[in-house]
Amino acid sequence: MVINGIHIDDTFAEAFPMKATRAIITAQNLEWAYHSARAMTGFATSVIACGCEAGIERELSPEETPDGRPGVAVLIFAMGGKGLAKQLETRAGQCVLTSPTSALFAGIEGGKPIPLGKNLRFFGDGFQMSKKIGGKRYWRIPVMDGEFLAEETTGMVDAVGGGNFLILAESQPQALAACEAAVAAMKEIPNVIMPFPGGVVRSGSKVGSKYKALNASTNDAFCPTLKGVTKTQLSPEIESVMEIVIDGLTKEDIDRAMRAGIEAVCQLGAGAGIRRISAGNYGGKLGPFHFHLREIMT
Question: Which parts of the chain span the membrane according to its record (predicted)?
Fold first, then answer.
């Protein structure tokens, strides 16, 4: 398949099951909601070393939030329910409770309830109070700027992590420009995040390593400086490869995000130095979710 001069490889991205939740952070204004959300989703690019993968899903207008203030929705993904609950509670306590004027609400109705403000309330040292409104319990925790309001629980659902595609270009600036276009398009799709910095990974990995202590290592087949010393996947004119990783609440959400991203890259065309779109898979050994590029783009 060739779209606007860009070759779409006959391959697939391989993804795996995760658990996910959404939290809604509100504040006096959008700037402070972002301060809190960026702190909460920091150091959360990969479960390989971060414990979870997290990102800002989108801004919320006052009409969309429970307390009528500006807000931000964040998504957090982990490999299991216990790990997700721990990451959520730790990050909420250190990054949202601490952030001036913030409040914290559930972002997923249904699913299995996991603590949001349920345990954070103990920071109130006995002065905390609860109130039940519309069947939902909220905790009012006294803090030095006034009061931190947190909903007791949010929902945890099954999700999918590790959707991806690779952009192969003639130069590093061209690969990055294509990634930026893709990420901008993908941010319009709900229920997904691209957890790496700016949504882009320059250090894509393969499973395993020659070093026993590592369970992942550089994807040498796609490293341009290793063309002469490894079993390369790159033709001579390709000098830069970057990856976009996608986590989504469902397989269909990742399908839509991948299509939007690849379409944005293809609109740039081969004239922008983009030669191929490929994907990372491990022969079906990593996960049960397979995203075939050509099916997505048909």
Answer: none
24-56: per-residue pLDDT in tens? Answer: 999 999 999 999 999 999 999 999 889 999 999
Residue length of the chain: 298
Place of tokens 């061209």: 174
Q: How are beta strands 274-278 and 6-8 bridged, if at all?
A: parallel
CA distance 297 to 214: 35
Segment 123-160, tens digit of pLDDT: 999 999 999 999 999 999 999 999 999 999 999 999 99
Residues in Cβ contact with 67 at an 8 Å cutoff, skipping those fewer than 6 apart? 26, 103, 105, 149
DSSP conformation letters of 130-188: EEEETTEEEEEEEETTEEEEEESEEEEEEEEEEEEEEEEESSHHHHHHHHHHHHHHHTT
Q: What 3-state class would DSSP assign to 41?
A: coil
In this structure, the strands spanning 289-292 and 136-143 are unpaired
pTM reported for the whole predicted model: 0.94
Give the list of residues 6+ apart from residue 90 with CB closer than 8 angstroms, or none.
none
User: What are the CA-CA distances from residue 117 to residues 43, 111, 183 (Å)?
Assistant: 22, 17, 32
Only one residue has tokens 């009012």, namely 140
CA 149, CA 188: separation in Å to the nearest integer? 29
Nearest to 106 by CA among 115, 98, 97: 115
